[in-house]
Amino acid sequence: MSLIDHLSKHTLCLHLGPRRLSAVVRRAGRAVPGSATELAIDNPGTHWQLPLDALHGFLARPSQAGAGAGLPLALSLSNHWCRMSLAPWSDALLTEAGAARFLQTQMAAVYGEAARGWSIAADDAPYGQPRLVCGIDPELLQGVQAVARANGHACHAVEALLSVAGRAIAPAKPRAFALVEPGRLVLAALAGGRIVAVQTQNCPPAWQAELAQAWQRWTLRAPELAGIDEVAVLDLSGAPAAELAPRFKLAPLAAPELMGESIWA
Are 37 and 55 in contact (CB under 8 A)? Predict the structure, then answer.
């Protein structure tokens, strides 16, 4: 695709979480006015089947016969369904087959043998640098692609929300950020605009106190991060606002801005 073609095309950017679907149509990196929408999902747990059904219903509804009909999709998935890790550099990454085996082994070392059945992808880090790795249940990935096809959309990108958030926050040049969703907290450190360390965990609805404790535990395990004196916070939890410890600063980014950071937006 040429740059002119890319700038002239629209993309339907979506975020799918356990209890919320967000969507916006973007053109040349900008949201189309009036195109943003959110849909609450009645899901008592965090499994992806009910949200996947909601995605199908959203794409199939009559109102989608308007601006969003037939547009290519760029989808970010909740960190509840994406298992993240940093893999060290290895010459095995220089070939496709070697990279697949190496990354599966790295993820299995962190998450257990079940990781060998996941769909695994890594970012395109420079030679010699660690790779950010994401593992997703292949049934979820296949389900998303099938729902897109069934409703006349090409699925151009499926990414972890963490990756999208990392690109969104990078221009502010923070050294670390926290990404909060209902029940899920991810801490990430950045260098050179890339995620270079990551820590994930569950969290309670009142996540603010847990954030400070999670950061303290992480820096005890990774003392090289202890010198970071300010952490940006991306809050997608929907929880009532509460005071944060001085180290943590809310970033003014909501779901539509994050979705615009898709590599296809």
Answer: no
Query: Contact at 8 Å (CB) between 262 and 163?
Result: no
Residue 47 in tokens:
């499994």
Q: Residue 100 burial (CB < 10 Å; 0-12/13-18/19+)? A: middle
Q: For residue 172, what is the DSSP state?
A: G
The per-residue pLDDT for range 178-188, each reduced to its tens digit, is 999 999 999 99
Looking from the CA of 81 toward its CB, the CA atoms found within 13 Å total 27
Residues 182 and 40: their CA atoms lie apart, in Å, by 13
Beta-ladder partners of 253: none
Q: Do residues 265 and 74 touch, judged by C-beta distance below 8 A?
A: yes
229-253 residue pLDDT tens: 999 999 999 888 889 999 999 987 6
Element containing residue 257 per DSSP (H, E): helix 255-259
**Using CA atoms, how far apart are residues 44 and 174, in angstroms rounded to an integer?**
35
Q: What is the pLDDT of residues 99-137, one digit of tens each?
A: 999 999 999 999 999 999 999 999 988 899 999 999 999
